[in-house]
UniProtKB/TrEMBL annotation:
Molecular-function GO terms, alphabetical: aspartic-type endopeptidase activity
Tagged with keyword rRNA-binding: no
Organism placement in taxonomy: Bacteria, Pseudomonadati, Pseudomonadota, Gammaproteobacteria, Alteromonadales
Signal peptide region: none
Biological processes annotated in GO: proteolysis
Domain Peptidase A2: 276-355
Full protein name: Peptidase A2 domain-containing protein
Residue numbers spanned by region Disordered: 31-52
Keywords, comma-separated and alphabetical: Hydrolase
NCBIfam families tied to this protein: clan_AA_DTGA
Amino acid sequence: MQVKSTLLGLSLLLNAYLGWQLSQLSPALQPADSTLTPKVPQARPIRAKDSDTPAAVAQAQQAFEQARYEQALVSLLQARQTHPDITQRYAQQWWQWIDTQRMQARQTQLFAQLALVQGYLRADPQALTAQRLEILLYQSLGQPDEALTRLLIAYRRNPHYTEWQTLVDTLLVPRLVALSQQQQWHELLTLAAPWYDEKPQMLPLLIHQVEAHLALLQPAEALFLIAQADHTLRHHQKTEALYQRAQALQQGVTHVPLRRLGSHFVLEARLAGTTIELMIDTGASVTSLTQQQFATLAQAVDYLDTRTVSTANGLANVEFYQSEQMQIGDQVRGPMQFAVMNEMRAGPGLLGMNFLRHFDFDIDQQNAVLILRPRSHN
């Protein structure tokens, strides 16, 4: 009996000791109560010992873990006045956590986190990690141009920080590609010009600017940019090809890439705000669109009349319309009449002589290129 009493006493003492130890653990390590509402994800920084952690830092950390970012910022900046090293360490851990979860965060969370980062930057404008996070948050919020503006400012302050080059590659180049695909040439030039002043050795900046000037029918500006580039960029394969295009455009000659379709050639044209495919047909007097192409036109066109014309299937009544202009390559002509085919089918329309008659033209079949030389009376 005495042995049992002794063992029982030791068991009670051990349970009491373990309970006390558990109460001393960080709340993040204590067993979760399944009846409580789940908390927001926590940053889980590497904590200093409780006795070494300033009260304001502890308050800031608690507010941050509860997503009360405004209070977290106030407490952290208060602690920064007397404990700059500790607050800097906590801030770095906050930025790291926000960065890892920003792709899954809601927009309201991103705005709140952006305000937190910007508030910290007002107190410590040289904090590189916070600057980087501010840029990435703007990108996550769908504001790529604002992100690149902030990146440019940061790059000018500290051009040797390697992370800026990484962001240039991951943010600037894809943005230039997107603007080029969307044919937003003026926006592209506005974005690229200040960056080119800072990074004149960057090939994508040169290439996209030259392409934009060519699309805007500005060969002189394109040639000037190429002439100002260094020897390596000037003699790059892409630059030399653009140089030839710019010279040809300045002389009024346009080279239009073609796509083979059986024994025929297809090119891209711009009509009524829409890019369409047309098959070259020197036997057609008027350009024709399929009904599917006509339905996709982004801008209004004028209905002219309905005419009886001879087609491969016999006589047919065909509607004729007129657009302000049509563009192929760098060449624009207008007003431009076109017909709409009756049959419903996919595929290209027909490029007729009402556009081609303005040019002396050749088809370079080997290189799949249409060469357009404007006639003098045009």
